[in-house]
Design goal:
alpha/beta, globular, 133 residues, seven-stranded mixed beta sheet
Length: 133
């Protein structure tokens, strides 16, 4: 994803404890995470990544709304925030959802999606591109 859009920042929306962020940085992919419930003193986050984690709702972030970016939502908590992100995102952003097929309707309602890859997660999650509604 990042290779096809190398100038766009990668934002993990709802990053939790930042595990994906750590993996992306190990691959030398610049990325940041946003999650209002992120604990800033989480001991497993390397100190050089602390400034890459923002304790905010992604859909309310000016960065998500005003900057073309690669937005990732991975295994969301089904609270409705993926659809809010899709509605708030910049029109040139690329939005990718990683989750179980049975949760697509719950998380994204009737938004158009395209299945890109199977079995990208630990529990058989798939990768979908999500189109702007």
């Amino acid at each position: 994803m990042h290779k096809s859009h190398p100038k766009m920042p990668v934002i993990d929306c709802g990053c939790g404890d930042g595990d994906l962020l750590i993996d992306l940085h190990k691959l030398r992919i610049p990325a940041m995470g946003m999650d209002p419930r992120y604990a800033i003193f989480n001991e497993h986050i390397p100190i050089h990544l602390i400034n890459c984690l923002l304790p905010v709702e992604a859909q309310e972030s000016n960065l998500v709304q005003n900057t073309p970016a690669i937005l990732l939502v991975c295994r969301p908590c089904h609270s409705g925030f993926p659809i809010d992100i899709n509605n708030a995102r910049h029109k040139k952003s690329k939005f990718y959802y990683i989750g179980l097929e049975r949760n697509i309707e719950l998380d994204l309602c009737n938004v158009e999606t395209k299945l890109l890859m199977y079995d990208v997660g630990e529990d058989g999650e798939c990768l979908w591109e999500v189109f702007k509604s």
